[in-house]
Amino acid sequence: MVKVITYGTYDMLHYGHIRLLERAKALGDYLIVGITSDDYDKTRGKINLQQTLMERIAAVEATGLADEIVVEEYEGQKIDDIRRLGVDIFTVGSDWEGYFDYLNEYCKVVYLPRTQGVSSSEVRAEKRKLRIGLVGSTVFRTKFINEAKFVNGVEVVGVYASAKGTEPELNTLYYTDRYDALLERVDAVYIISKPENHYKHCKEALLAGKHVLCESPVAYTREQCQELFALAKEKNLILMDAIKTAYSTAYERLILMAKGGKIGRVVSVDAVCTSLRDGISIEGTDLSKKWNSMCGWAPAAMLPVFQIFGTDYRRKLYYTMFQDKSENIDAFTKIDFVYGSGVATVKVAKGAKAEGELIITGTKGYIYVPAPWWKTDYFEIRYEHPEDNRRFFYQLDGEGIRYEIVAFAKAVDSGRNYSNVSEEISEAIVGVIEDFNKRQNMIELI
Ligand code: CTP
């Protein structure tokens, strides 16, 4: 019996795939199809597949051409599969000509002519693009513009801000200083205006029937936050809190491991985020244009706390050193959260510096994420005996921003929620900022 193997992503199965599978099958008696896992595709830069692994497997199965399906999960797996499954022929389309010659050592390699005129990328691109408008003048917006280029199916088309920026990335975009003019031209907005304006900008966009991706916090009070989510629901629109950390694979996995009991019962979560880069402590800086440490850093820092312990804390206490109290700019804030089953601290600063690490303490061991943990591709699980320690590495591209844009575009497309930040957590974050603004339970450092 001649065994043939072929590999692919098979997103939105089209006749080019089917023809390839038919010809592959005809090369022998038994066809094995390797289908790439979502994670492996992510590391290969294929980030916005329309279908999940299970859907792609089901589609290949439905062709009736595969005698066996394997999932391709890692670099180098092909050699493993060929040996393990006793494969005689490896085949793929001619777009890979020469690329897999190294497999000749293990079996025969055949490149089959690719069917002209069709590809998954084209099928994906045929759909009308989601036109996104940017709201605000923070420098971070250029990162968003650059990251959106990696996501097919979306297009940043314009910017609304009080003044046109000088960044070269903005050159080709439509610019307006009227919000309604931007809203008319887009399907969705990415809001990165000053936090006190988020509520207003979100609400206007939703009322105009536009989807919203908004930097955290989405509002300044819990009540406003609930109103926004209710409005989005009522109008069948997506409102998503933009915290890029939530889209780092390493971060997602470490949260699952903490919740899955890998370090025993979690008793403490300690997250630190600081940077001096924003220059709030430089003499003469226009603080009215700056985000404070609370809004700039605390949403990301609170994410692991709320994802692990939930949002129902018993008490919290702020320790804050203000840079300028009238502008509500804190140079440093530490928040202690007390839960029934554990405690957490969040330390954020734009006017002080500390090691930006995340430590999750458990009864059997701890998770250690080195600085800068909020855009990490790496973490360790450490135990009493160092020989038991484990290290984990997951590739991260674009600090998570491009995956966040993919999740947003998918949500808009399907009407389903693909956000990694739950509504409950968005609201809890807003609540912590609301109480900070009210100076509730705050010890001021002078
Ligand atoms: N294939 C083919 N003819 C096409 C498209 C794909 O023969 N028109 C083959 C590829 O060469 C590969 C297999 O089908 O052996 C699976 O390809 P895959 O990468 O999943 O599909 P593409 O349509 O090429 O996807 P993309 O556009 O995302 O690269």
Give a written overview of the molecule.
The chain is an alpha/beta fold. The chain folds into 3 domains: 3-122, HUPs (Rossmann fold, 3-Layer(aba) Sandwich), CATH 3.40.50.620; 126-245, Rossmann fold (3-Layer(aba) Sandwich); 262-444, Dihydrodipicolinate Reductase, domain 2, CATH 3.30.360.10. Helices cover 32% and strands 26% of the residues. The protein is built from 13 helices and 20 strands. It has helices at 15-26, 38-43, 53-62, 77-85, 120-126, 141-148, 179-185, 195-207, 222-234, 249-259, 293-309, 401-414, 423-437; strands at 3-8, 30-36, 68-72, 89-93, 108-112, 130-135, 154-160, 174-176, 188-191, 211-215, 239-242, 266-274, 315-324, 329-338, 343-349, 358-362, 365-369, 378-383, 390-393, 442-444. It has a 9-stranded mixed β-sheet with strand order 19-18-17-16-12-15-14-13-20, with helices on one face. A 6-stranded parallel β-sheet has the order 8-7-6-9-10-11, sandwiched between helices. Helix 8 packs parallel to helix 9, helix 9 runs antiparallel to helix 13 (423-437) and helix 11 crosses helix 13 (423-437). It is globular and about 80 Å long. The termini are far apart. The structure holds cytidine-5'-triphosphate. Residues 6, 8-10, 16-17, 20, 92-93, 95, 114-115, 118-121 line the site of cytidine-5'-triphosphate (CTP).
